[in-house]
Write a structure and sequence with these properties.
The structure holds 3 protein chains of 3 kinds. Chain A is of the alpha+beta class. In chain A, 25% of the residues lie in helices and 23% in strands. In chain A, strand 4 and strand 5 form a beta hairpin. The model of chain A has no long low-confidence stretch (mean pLDDT 90). Chain B is mainly alpha-helical. Chain B has one domain. The radius of gyration of chain B is 19 Å and the shape is globular. The chains are: A alpha+beta, B mainly alpha, C alpha/beta. The interface between B and C is medium-sized, with 34 and 26 residues.
C-alpha cells in the first residue's frame, strides 16, 4: 500500500482509498475530520499547495462530493481528499484560513453548485454569473437546454445531424 | 510699424505645405517601420482617410470646456511653433513671423502643446489619460532639458536670440553649420530630439498596447482629428527648428524636405532598432547622457 | 424562478459630505450619467461630401480591441506580417471612443454582453458591428448553453456576419472588404437603426440581463 496511506490510516478514519498513480492518491473521510487532515497534510506531510477545490454532484445518492487536491512540491506528490455532503441545503466549513486561495474556489462552488461556505470572504458575491436567477447551473437537476430555450431567442432553421449517420450519407449515398 | 497683411496668407501657405508634407512623410515612415517588421504597411494616403473620417463622424461628446481646449492648445503649439520659424531662409514669402527674440518663444511653444493636452485630458477624467499625462509631462520635461541647454549654448555662440540671424550665420558651406561649429550642442539637442518625437524607444506616453493610447483615451471625432493634424505638423515644425538652428537652415523647399526627411529618419532609425524605455528609464537616460553634454556645450561656448 | 435583489450599494442614492463639510445628496445613476436616449443622425451633407466621408470611413476602419470570445485569437494574425490588415486601412484602437467597428469575436456570454453594450454605446456614430463566427449567428456549438446569447442581432445592430467556427483570417479580411463596400454604398447605418429601434433593443437586452446596473445609454 502507499506509504503515505500507511502513515495516515492510524491517525484519521479514512473510508475509501484509490491509488490513481504512484504520485497521486485519493482518500475519502468523514467531513468533520477534514480540517485536521488538511492541517496535518499541510504542516507535517508538506502538502503546501492547494491545487484545486471542486465538487461533483452525485444526484442519485443525494450527495455532493468535494475534492481538495493538494500538492507536495519537494516530493512531486499529489493527494486528493474527498468528503461527502448532503445535497439539500449543502453547507461546508470554509478552509480559507488554511489557504487564502480557497476563498475563490468556495465562491465559485457557491455560485455554480449552491454549496455554502459560511465565513468565507466574499462568498456572497457574484463570481462569474451576474444576475443569475435560476438553480445553480452546475447542479445536475438544472436543465441547460430548457433554460436556454426559455431565455434566449433562437434563430430558426437550425438542423442537427448525427455526425456518423450524416457523413455516411454524404460519402456513400448508395449505401455501403 | 506697418504690418504686411500678405504675411498671413504666406503663413497659411506654409502651413498648408507643411501639413501635407507631414501627412505623407508620416505615412512613409510608418511604411518603413512596417517593412522592417516584414509587413506591407499602410497606404500613403492613409492619414488623409483617417483625418477625413474623424472629421466626418456625426456625433461627438464633450467632458467640459478644457476638453474642447485641449486639442486646440495642442494644435496651437504645433502651428505657433511653425509660424515663428523662418522655414525657408532668405525667402520673403516663407520666413513667416520670425522676429528678434523668437528663440525663446519657440522654446515655449515646444512645451505649450503638452501643457494644453494635460489640461484637456485631465478634464476627460479617464484614469488612463491621467497616467499618460504624468508620463508625458515627466518625459517631455526631461527631454526638454538638453534641448534648452543646447539652445542656450548656440545663443551664446552666435550672441543672438533670433533664429533668422542664427541661420544667417550658418550660410556659406556646410562647415559653417552648427553641427560642425558646435557639435556638443547638436549632440545634446539630437538626444532630446529622440525623446520629443513620440517614437520608440520613448513612446511609452502613448503606449498603444499598455495604457490604451495614453492622454487622448477619451478623445474622438473632431477632437482627435485636431490632434492628428497636430501630430502631422508638430514633428515637421520641430525638425524645422532643428534645421534652422543646427543644420544650416534651408534655402528652398526641396532642401527643406530633404533635411527634414533625413533628421526624421534618425528618430525612426533609432525607433525600429531599440525597444521601448519605461518612463523612469528614459528620464534617467536624458539626465545621464543629455544634460551633461548640454552643460558641456554651454561651458565650451 | 426566484426573485433576487440585484441593487448595488454603489448605485444607491446616498448623502455625501464634501471636503468643505457641506452635505449633499448623490444619485449616481442620475448625476454621473447622461439619461438622454440616442438620436438618429442622418447623413447631413450634400451627396458628394457624404460620398467623400463614406470613402474615408471605408478606408479607415478602426476596430475596437475587445475580444469577446475565442474568435479574438483570429484577429491577432491580422496585425502581423502574414495577413497585415493595416494595408487596407484597418487598425485596432484600444478605446471605444476612437473605434468605428466592433467585432463581436465569437460567443457572447450575458456578462460580456453587458460590457459589449456599454462599449458599443460609447462608440461614435457612424459605427459598425460585425458578428464573427457561428456563435454570434445562432449560438453555434453553444446553442444550448445557459449563459451565451444565440442571436446577436437581437441586442446590437449587426452590419455583417462572418460565418465559420472559427473563420480563418482570410475570411475576416474578405468580410472587412465586404463591409467596406457596404459603407461606401452608404448602407452601414447601424447606429441609426439602434437609435430608431432603441426601445426594442433595450427590451431585448433587459430580458436577459437581470441585474441591469448601468445607464440606459452610455454616452
Amino acid at each position: 500500500m502507499h506509504p503515505l496511506y500507511e502513515r495516515l490510516k492510524h491517525l484519521f478514519p479514512l473510508d475509501e482509498v484509490t491509488e490513481q498513480r504512484p504520485d497521486l492518491l485519493f482518500v475519502t473521510l468523514p467531513r468533520e475530520h477534514l480540517r485536521s487532515l488538511l492541517l496535518h497534510l499541510r504542516d507535517i506531510e508538506g502538502f503546501s499547495h492547494l491545487v484545486l477545490l471542486t465538487a461533483v454532484d452525485w444526484i442519485e445518492e443525494g450527495q455532493f462530493q468535494l475534492t481538495y487536491l493538494l500538492h507536495n512540491r519537494p516530493k512531486a506528490q499529489d493527494i486528493g481528499v474527498r468528503i461527502k455532503l448532503a445535497r439539500d441545503s449543502a453547507t461546508m466549513e470554509s478552509i480559507h484560513t488554511l489557504w487564502p486561495t480557497a476563498a475563490t474556489y468556495q465562491r465559485e462552488l457557491r455560485e455554480m453548485f449552491g454549496i455554502d461556505f459560511p465565513g468565507s470572504p466574499g462568498v456572497e458575491e457574484d463570481f462569474i454569473l451576474e444576475g443569475w436567477i435560476d438553480l445553480p447551473p452546475y447542479r445536475r437537476d438544472f436543465d441547460t437546454k430548457k433554460f436556454s430555450d426559455e431565455n434566449y431567442n433562437h434563430r430558426p432553421g437550425r438542423e442537427t445531424h448525427d455526425p456518423a449517420e450524416y457523413m455516411k450519407q454524404q460519402l456513400y449515398p448508395n449505401g455501403l | 510699424m506697418s504690418f504686411d497683411w500678405m504675411k498671413i496668407v504666406y503663413a497659411l501657405l506654409t502651413l498648408f505645405i507643411v501639413v501635407n508634407y507631414g501627412m505623407i512623410i508620416t505615412a512613409i515612415f510608418q511604411k518603413i517601420g512596417a517593412r522592417i517588421g516584414r509587413r506591407y504597411g499602410i497606404p500613403v494616403w492613409q492619414n488623409y482617410a483617417d483625418l477625413i473620417k474623424n472629421y466626418g463622424l456625426r456625433s461627438s461628446i464633450t467632458h467640459g470646456t478644457m476638453f474642447y481646449l485641449g486639442p486646440v492648445f495642442r494644435l496651437t503649439g504645433g502651428v505657433g511653433l511653425l509660424l515663428f520659424i523662418p522655414v525657408i531662409y532668405g525667402s520673403e514669402i516663407f520666413s513667416n513671423f520670425s522676429f528678434a527674440g523668437d528663440l525663446i518663444l519657440i522654446l515655449y511653444f515646444v512645451f505649450f502643446g503638452t501643457l494644453g493636452m494635460a489640461l484637456g485630458a485631465a478634464e476627460s477624467g479617464h484614469p488612463y489619460s491621467a497616467i499618460g499625462i504624468t508620463r508625458g509631462l515627466s518625459q517631455v520635461t526631461a527631454s526638454e532639458l538638453p534641448f534648452a541647454l543646447a539652445v542656450f549654448a548656440i545663443a551664446l555662440q552666435y550672441q543672438t536670440l533670433s533664429v533668422t540671424e542664427i541661420v544667417a550665420a550658418q550660410q556659406g558651406g556646410y562647415l559653417n553649420w552648427t553641427l560642425f561649429t558646435n557639435p556638443l550642442a547638436v549632440m545634446a539637442a539630437m538626444l532630446s530630439f529622440l525623446g520629443s518625437m513620440m517614437r520608440p524607444p520613448f513612446d511609452v506616453v502613448l503606449a498603444p498596447q499598455e495604457i490604451p493610447i495614453g492622454p487622448p483615451t477619451e478623445y474622438h471625432s473632431s477632437y482627435l482629428a485636431l490632434m492628428q493634424t497636430n501630430r502631422m505638423i508638430f514633428p515637421i515644425a520641430k525638425i524645422a527648428v532643428y534645421v534652422c538652428l543646427f543644420f544650416g537652415g534651408a534655402v528652398s523647399w526641396p532642401i527643406f524636405f530633404l533635411k527634414v526627411f533625413l533628421i526624421y529618419f534618425v528618430s525612426v532609425f533609432v525607433g525600429v532598432v531599440f525597444p521601448r524605455f519605461r518612463v523612469e528609464q528614459s528620464i534617467r537616460w536624458f539626465l545621464i547622457w543629455g544634460v551633461p553634454i548640454g552643460i558641456l556645450a554651454i561651458l565650451v561656448a | 424562478m426566484q426573485s433576487k435583489d440585484f441593487s448595488k450599494a454603489e448605485l444607491q442614492k446616498r448623502t455625501v459630505t464634501g471636503p468643505d463639510g457641506v452635505e449633499f445628496e448623490v444619485d449616481p445613476m442620475r448625476d454621473y450619467f447622461c439619461e438622454a436616449p440616442p438620436t438618429v443622425m442622418p447623413p447631413a451633407y450634400i451627396k458628394i461630401v457624404e460620398d467623400l466621408f463614406n470613402w474615408a470611413r471605408a478606408e479607415s476602419i478602426w476596430i475596437l480591441g475587445f475580444g469577446t470570445g475565442c474568435g479574438a485569437i483570429e484577429m491577432r494574425p491580422l496585425m502581423t506580417p502574414r495577413f497585415d490588415a493595416y494595408r487596407y486601412g484597418i487598425q485596432w484602437r484600444p478605446t471605444p471612443r476612437q473605434a468605428n467597428l466592433f467585432v463581436i469575436s465569437g460567443y457572447l456570454s450575458v456578462k460580456t454582453l453587458k460590457r459589449a453594450i456599454r462599449s458599443y454605446e460609447q462608440m461614435q456614430n457612424p459605427k459598425y458591428v460585425v458578428g464573427l463566427g457561428s456563435c454570434t449567428i445562432n449560438g453555434g456549438m453553444y446553442w444550448d448553453s445557459y449563459n451565451t446569447i444565440k442571436r446577436l442581432d437581437d441586442y446590437l445592430p449587426v452590419d455583417l456576419y462572418i460565418t465559420g467556427c472559427m473563420p480563418r483570417p482570410e475570411a475576416l479580411l474578405q468580410g472587412f472588404m465586404d463591409l467596406k463596400k457596404v459603407i461606401r454604398a452608404g448602407n452601414a447605418e447601424g447606429a441609426n437603426r439602434y437609435a430608431e429601434n432603441f426601445a426594442w433593443y433595450k427590451a431585448n437586452q433587459k430580458q436577459i440581463i437581470h441585474d441591469w446596473d448601468m445607464p440606459e445609454y452610455s454616452w
